[in-house]
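Our preliminary data section would be incomplete without showing what the modeling component actually yields. Below, a chain of 755 amino acids is followed by its predicted structure, encoded as tokens that our downstream tools consume directly.
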Amino acid sequence: MPSRPSPPTRPSPPPEPTPSAPASAPAEPTPPAPASTSPRPSAPTATHCPYCALQCGMNLAAGPAGVDVLERPGFPVNRGALCGKGRTAPALLSPASRLTEPLVRAPSGRLVPAGWPEALDRVAEGLARTREAHGADACGVFGGGGLTNEKAYALGKFARVALGTSQIDYNGRFCMASAAAGQQRAFGLDRGLPFPLEDVARTGCVILVGSNLAETMPPALRYLTELRENGGRLIVVDPRRTRTAEHADLHLAPRPGTDLALALGLLHLVVAEGRLDEEFIRERTTGWEQARAAAMAHWPEHVERITGVPVPRLREAVRMFCAAGTSMVLTARGPEQQSKGTDTVGAWINLCLATGRAGRPLSGYGALTGQGNGQGGREHGQKADQLPGYRKLTDPAARRHVAEVWGVDPDALPGPGRSAYELLEALGTEVRALLLMGSNPVVSAPRAAHVEERLRRLDFLVVADVVLSETAALADVVLPVTQWAEETGTVTNLEGRVLLRRQAVAPPPGVRSDLAVLSELAARLGMEKGFPTDPEEVFAELRRASAGGPADYSGITYGALAEGDGIFWPCGAEPEGGAPQEDGPPGTPRLFLDRFATEDGRARFVPVTHRPAAEEPDDEYPVLLTTGRVLAQYQSGAQTRRVAELNAAEPGPFVQVHPRLAARIPVAEGDRVAVVSRRGRAVAPVRISTAIRADTVFMPFHWPGEGRANSVTNPALDPTSRMPEFKVCAVRLERAEDAGTGIDAHTGKGTGTGD
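Predicted structure:
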């Protein structure tokens, strides 16, 4: 193959268009998007939303000039309800909103249109050249939690078989890794929710930790509303009084980074007040004495000093949780995106186990998965240490099983590679070429300016995406691929419910599926067989590869999915595994009722102790920053920032500041302020609110440019899950006119600057 000249310097991503007028986000933006000009479905198509892990059911139908979203009230998860993001999803089906032809980097440094053969040839040549010059592990692959199960499976196979690299991970490492690690450690299995969402409304008490689902997954709020209507109690743990916290019977507002101490303090009180379930501990768990000793070192007054939560409120939380006959703890990114996230999840699980609130109907621990296929995406081979079926890459039996399905020698499969942030950190040095699908780390990764610089140092970058994201704008080759309504495939929602997304419209000419891209690239790399393009054929292979694994899909078929409302894994091919259960859908809606997924069937207490965040406030950086999502935007905003209705509701970044902190700086509502950490700065208007702690500021992370919150966040990693610490870092605030002058607005003294 002819050698490719050295790539010219990549330009910065195009500036973000400025929306016309700011507007306050409504409780649920529902106006439909402008009708899509893409081909229209001839009849209503039952499918699912492209956004969060609820995977709300919807129908797509031909409208007056495009595609309309219609309610699908029979689907049990959302029962017809949709948030503004779901209702406006067809806006991105318009060719005017997305990529419709491949782009390649010209000698001028600009991205210019190219035909598919040229683009694919460039990709294959770039990957092959890198592999030949530097070894297989110099090629990296970075996936996404929005890819269908078929795409995630094929991407993992492509990395390990076609490229022979160990260097694959995905952005779900930034989402669910700590909850997954905590559940694996305690229960022997990770499925976000071990029960259907319908059980949440029927339990007696829910502790919701670090989730603002009223904004991040609005249709799920009805389960909390129904919980309270049924006489249940809701406790919300969040440093902000969010829209979700407004619905709570009790709101605990701990200092960011102290959720672990809070959970340990509650367990201490359970012991001290004699609220243990001794029989459950004896019959169904191991390791209690060590966990008990660790918890008893966290007495209430000590926990109050760490968290800022008063002792009476700690006692009230324990009373509510234990007085109910059944209870649940649900966590989200708040406690998980910390450098001690796995231990924090473990502490909340310990609370459930000690009180007998696990492995029983209407009780247990669960994690609210975030991304659309965040559950399925981590089950079938995108992760650095994993094979399909949630098998471990280091397990010889797992390697033999999957290698047989793939028709390769088990010894030829590479071992575990780097986790997501560590892979991004290695770009331009150990990893010289990167294939990236369905992710936008220029906006979504911690220490994002540094990650952007690492991407620019690559010898070769190829991005497959629906839109020209900020990351795609840096690529040597950009491949336009199909999206949700233009393709068929399966996803697995936060309940572990496997669903069939049906194709409703044809993609624009010039757009190909991710499966077709991988098949073409594999053929150019010498593997003309083994990478089918038909999603049902890929799923059939996934079923075989997952058979007998923890996440067993072998009893699930497209035909069965098309006939119902999804199938809960595990669902083996044996009659008893694949047959419908009398009390609900087929598969396994409720886990652990008879035994946990450990060798002896018992849940594991894990002794954990509180430790500070990786970065605590000091004189130079005296304030804590926490980050999160807002109602009208989603993840890095690559999709939602292209929808006019959503931008009208939430047009740009902001910094939420308590009035006392605002007066100290001083700044007023709407003033621009710089949030500065040791890693960089982000500038955005101030929103003054009593809904946040006075020692903490909040920024949403959906925007690039000067308001990019992840320019500031800390990539300190959890030692077990390798999850970065997005949710807490030390910052200072500077008035915009003082930004970069070395003047600290808190003190008026000279300071250093972020890198």
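The two ends are 41 Å apart (CA to CA). Residues 300 and 312 are 9 Å apart (CA to CA). Preliminary results of this kind motivate Aim 1 of the renewal.
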